[in-house]
Design a protein that fits this description.
Keywords: Cell membrane, Kinase, Membrane, Phosphoprotein, Transferase, Transmembrane, Transmembrane helix, Two-component regulatory system, Virulence. Residues 318-340 have a biased composition (Polar residues). Residues 110-310 form the Histidine kinase domain. It holds the Pfam family HATPase_c. The chain is of the alpha+beta class. The protein has 3 domains: 31-109; 114-168; 179-277 and 286-324 and 343-362, Heat Shock Protein 90, CATH 3.30.565.10. The protein contains 7 helices and 10 strands. The chain has helices spanning 31-61, 66-131, 136-168, 180-194, 215-231, 291-301, 334-341, and strands at 2-5, 8-11, 175-179, 202-205, 209-214, 239-245, 251-257, 305-314, 348-357, 360-362. The protein has a 5-stranded mixed β-sheet. α1 runs antiparallel to α2 (66-131).
Length: 376
């Protein structure tokens, strides 16, 4: 039925028409399990205290039956302590399950977005090429864009497969002596291509170090570290890779970026599965929350260790213009020099991730012989 009110048409539902309201789901919280766990812990503690004090008081006041009270104390106290431990374990597991469920929800949101964006782009360009006459130049441009979308999908799928492979474990990889400089340079070049950055975005400082490890795991390890450093670096991002080898054979690779850094209380948390800081709906960076999880698991599988600390990427101040993210003075325009001069001292910034791996060695190149080769 419809009524005309003030020149507009309004529709009113019939009396027998069912009005369907959207179903709203309340967000899951830890309030109920935490409250229940705390109440149970308090009750068990009170019961334990009453039980111990009552049995001790009965044993002291009644000499004839003191043996029975001591037996009751010896049997009941461990049982109550076991119940208390079970309640604490329940509360701990509930919190862990809730956090894992929240991270999985963020992971699903992230993967859905990562899959939907390139697929929507591919669909748009394919529909445009099908329904409209497109010139050869535009076709070439569309093909390049679609190729980038396909590579983005391929990278996401490989990332998920790497995570599944690491999670499953049990796969044996053949180890060999790898040139660390070659591996780091390859990963750095690939990251610059993926993120459309100039080659100088990632600098590699590595002597002739060789590590005995599987090439697949080493490439996954440093590819994820470099990707993470570029994604969360400054604007523009700058990444510096430095490798050193100790006399004992431990190789330490430091990945330094010029980003805002990671708070100290979250540095252990970021290595968890599906962990991404912040809300997935408010995040602008691509990712699935599996990169540092892969890094940690592969490092431990290789017998190494990993550590995150504050970086020391120098930030330009009023009297210092040595920040690599700012052009040299000779190349600065008057406006850029004015902007640089207005910056306040802010110390250093960035994040440094140190990965230490065993079974490394330095192979120095053989010196060239000074004796001329014999001639016939």
């Amino acid at each position: 039925m419809k009524n005309q009110v003030s020149g507009s048409i309004q529709f009113q539902p019939a009396k027998d028409m069912a009005i369907v309201t959207p179903i709203s789901h309340r967000p899951l919280t830890l309030r109920t399990p935490v409250t229940l766990g705390v109440v149970l812990i308090v009750l068990v503690v009170l019961l334990t205290a009453v039980w111990i004090s009552g049995t001790v008081w009965g044993a002291v006041r009644n000499d004839s039956t003191s043996g029975m009270f001591w037996v009751m104390l010896g049997a009941g106290a461990p049982l109550l302590v076991a119940i208390l431990a079970g309640v604490i374990a329940y509360l701990t597991l509930s919190v862990k399950a809730f956090n894992l469920n929240r991270r999985q929800s963020n992971f699903i949101d992230s993967v859905t977005h990562e899959l939907k964006s390139p697929i929507a782009s591919l669909k748009l360009y394919l529909q445009t090429m099908t329904r409209h006459d497109v010139s050869v130049e535009q076709q070439k441009e569309f093909h390049l864009i679609m190729l980038e979308d396909v590579e983005r999908l391929d990278s996401l799928i490989n990332h998920l497969l790497d995570a599944a492979r690491v999670e499953r474990g049990g796969e044996a990889y053949e180890a060999s002596d790898l040139s660390l400089e070659t591996v780091l340079s390859k990963c750095a070049q690939g990251a610059c291509v993926r993120y459309k950055m100039p080659p100088e975005t990632v600098s590699v400082h590595c002597p002739a170090i060789y590590v005995h490890a599987p090439v697949v795991q080493i490439e996954i390890l440093f590819r994820n570290l470099i990707d993470n450093a570029i994604k969360y670096g400054g604007s523009p991002p700058k990444v510096e890779l430095t490798a050193v080898c100790s006399p004992s054979g431990d190789v330490t690779v430091s990945v330094l970026d010029n980003g805002t850094g990671i708070p100290a209380n979250l540095r252990r948390k970021v290595f968890g599965r599906f962990v991404r800081l912040g809300s997935e709906l408010e995040r602008s960076k691509q990712g699935t929350g599996l990169g540092l999880y892969l890094v940690r698991n592969i490092t431990h599988a290789l017998g190494g260790r990993i550590n995150i600390q504050d970086g020391h990427w120098k930030v330009a101040t009023e009297t210092d213009s040595s920040d690599p993210t700012i052009p040299d003075t000779a190349e600065q325009t008057p406006s850029s020099q004015q902007e640089l001069g207005s910056r306040k001292p802010s110390g250093s910034r960035g994040t440094r991730v140190d990965v230490t791996l065993p079974n490394g060695k330095i192979i120095e190149p053989e010196p060239a012989s000074d004796d001329p080769s014999p001639q016939d």
